[in-house]
Known about the structure:
The protein is mainly alpha-helical and 171 residues long. Helices cover 74% and strands 0% of the residues. The chain contains 8 helices and no strands. It has helices at 18-37, 40-43, 50-61, 65-79, 84-118, 120-129, 135-151, 156-168. α3 (50-61) runs antiparallel to α4 (65-79) and α5 packs across α6 (120-129). The longest helix has 35 residues, at 84-118.
Amino acid sequence: MDDPERDEGVEQPEAPSKSQVKRELQALRELGERLVEMPASQLARIPMSDTLAAAVAEGRRITSFAARKRQIGYIGKLLRSEEVEAMRQILADMDAGHRAEARRFQRLETWRDRMLAEGDEAVAAFLVEYPGAEAQPLRQLIRNARREADAGKPPASARKLFRYLREVTGG
């Protein structure tokens, strides 16, 4: 009984293990769940077949936990025949943009907090880094924010200061 498929010198590629197949299917279900939970504006950027788009739209409409779980399983099954690497790349790009925006937001918050704590020294440092900013509005907003904080009022001027910083830094 010689098996022509199994020659001694030729190595056969190994099939993925059962555990690996399960991990891949779980990853597809998680991708399907993410598609269902995405805002419509972001979902429009993801390339997908009409069948998958209809299934995702149906998944967004379903509110029952069990039915939604079944629908996500179905979406995962549909994803087996889709080009998921392109989807994953677009999602990674979106995530990178969100992380960059969050870092930028945190930097501006740090500047605002530093200006409120240090005053003119921080303003001078900010003006060196962002020469397009004007000192007078910054100092006025800082003064108003400090008065509000001392009086225990809501931080309206601190918010205005943050908006001004965002505007000046180009965002």
